[in-house]
Specification:
The protein is mainly α. The protein has helices at 3-63, 66-76, 81-110, 114-124, 127-142, 146-170, 174-199, 209-243, 246-262, 264-283, 285-322, 329-338, 340-355, 359-384, 386-411, 417-437, 442-460, 465-474, 476-479.
Length: 487
């Protein structure tokens, strides 16, 4: 098998593995999403969301970009695995201690109620176990063995849902949920480390001062990108809690959780392709640009109709899942939905630039976005609550997209981003017109949207024969099929 075909087959296998885990995880997560907000109510669900936001925010400091460095370097040279892994874990232990201390200081300065502080600290006590699971995930991604990532993601979803069902059955409270989170990440860290020791390489807990310092230095750009990204994603919850109240936090989080489900698509594609992009840049920049252009095209094909579709389904989805108490989340979901297309395309451009050692530009983009985001939050949240936070997130995302797009097209010859978006945009407009004219129930709306968009895609001939052949190489069970993708 030639190298290109082998790469496509490996990409296809990894996409299938991650898709399976994501589908299982999202189904189980959706069950949790149906139970938890209703069980806790808007106020307590707001506190839970606030605690998770602090947990994720300070987990960035505990991970410090070490996972991105590991994937980029080990994907190119597997002999670095042992020394990178040991150094990674030792550094994360030190960083977790520092992060937890900084979290305690932040909570003291912000003067949260004692009950809120206890919940936040209980959930955040899982930081080190979470950091280990992220290191283990980086190993699987660097080796392009995503089936192990899939195993751990499914395990996390099963353990989480089982814990929630147990809590509801025993009529537990939000503190019980914090305990379940700690137990889950402890078990995942133990399982993931065992897999690495048995299947990949013998773990050696040795490092040196110079290696720690060099790793810390080289991880800093990845840390900055991750830090700004998580602040961009979680600062709304923290600012709403201080500028308005926990009920508005619950309204925003309810809508945002549904939107985050859809981000599994760019996350899945990025997880699979980042090590491939890193290797392609090392071997051939032309190959990297071709892969980047094609991936961005398909992110546009997927992202544009989803952004438009959210507007039409939000009034039905919110009351169906959360009930009447969350009616104000409809407008929030509509605004956040407009940003889906931006995130789909922007995330892939960022990964291509990172693989090409242009992470500095990704960092600048994220910094511009977060500064605009925070400034807009201070203006819009006091006026419009959760809706203002959603609008600030959308506007700041647009600012970041403009800058990063400019960097991408000037960095590589042969980039064709805007041209690849025109036809999917026309197909999306056609779908939106149909849905605007025919508004009935939720299942019919979804079916009509899918059918009308598919018809428009076919009429505009967006997918060419070469791409069809590529898909047949990527997905093994289609290779010998006489029915699908007949050329």
């Amino acid at each position: 098998m030639n190298p290109k075909a082998a790469t496509l087959k490996n990409i296809g296998k990894n996409i299938v593995s991650l898709t399976t885990s994501e589908i299982v995880g999202r189904v189980l997560g959706s069950v949790t999403l149906l139970i938890l907000p209703r069980y806790l109510g808007p106020a307590d669900y707001g506190i839970y969301s606030l605690a998770i936001s602090y947990f994720l925010l300070f987990s960035v400091a505990a991970n410090y970009g070490l996972n991105g460095l590991f994937i980029k370097d080990v994907a190119r040279d597997k002999t670095l695995s042992q020394q990178y892994y040991g150094t990674n874990i030792i550094l994360k232990l030190l960083l977790t201690i520092f992060s937890f201390g900084m979290l305690c200081l932040a909570l003291y300065l912000l003067r949260y109620p004692l009950r809120d502080v206890k919940i936040i600290l209980m959930i955040s006590s899982a930081l080190f176990f979470y950091a280990i699971t992220q290191t283990n995930s980086a190993v699987y991604r660097a080796y392009e063995k995503m089936e192990y990532n899939a195993l751990l993601e499914i395990s996390r979803s099963v353990l989480g849902l089982a814990g929630i069902l147990l809590i509801v059955n025993l009529q537990g409270n939000i503190f019980w949920i914090a305990s379940i989170i700690n137990i889950t990440y402890f078990l995942l860290a133990f399982l993931g480390t065992g897999i690495i020791h048995r299947k990949f390489f013998k773990i050696i807990w040795k490092t040196s001062g110079p290696l720690i310092l060099n790793t810390f230095k080289n991880s800093t750009p990845f840390f900055l990108v991750s830090a700004v990204a998580i602040i961009q994603n979680r600062i709304d919850v923290i600012m709403i809690s201080k500028l308005v109240n926990n009920t508005e936090v619950g309204i925003f989080s309810a809508a945002n959780e549904l939107i985050n489900i859809l981000y599994l698509i760019p996350n899945l594609v990025s997880n699979v392709l980042f090590p491939v992009f890193s290797r392609q840049y090392y071997e051939s920049t032309k190959s990297l640009v071709a892969s980047g252009n094609l991936t961005i095209k398909y992110m546009a094909i997927i992202g544009l109709p989803i952004s438009a579709g959210i507007y039409f389904v939000a009034p039905s989805v919110i009351p169906l899942i959360y009930g009447a108490d969350y009616a104000n989340a409809v407008s929030v979901m509509r605004i956040l939905g407009l940003g889906i297309f931006i995130t789909f395309v922007l995330s892939l451009i960022a990964y291509v630039l990172t693989a090409a050692d242009k992470i500095r530009h990704v960092t600048i983009t994220n910094l511009l976005s977060i500064l605009a985001h925070i400034a807009l939050n201070f203006w819009l949240i006091p006026l419009y609550g959760a809706g203002g936070a959603a609008a600030a997130l959308l506007i700041s995302g647009c600012i970041g997209t403009v800058y990063l797009y400019r960097i991408y097209v000037t960095s590589f010859a042969g980039t064709v981003v805007l041209k690849s978006i025109i036809k999917p945009l026309l197909a999306t407009l056609f779908m939106s017109l149909i849905l605007w004219l025919v508004q009935i129930n939720l299942p019919f709306t979804i079916l009509l949207g899918v059918c009308s968009y598919t018809v428009a895609l076919g009429a505009l001939r967006i997918i060419d024969r070469e791409e069809i052949l590529m898909f047949r190489q990527m997905i093994p069970f289609l290779t010998h099929s006489k029915f699908f993708f007949r050329s």
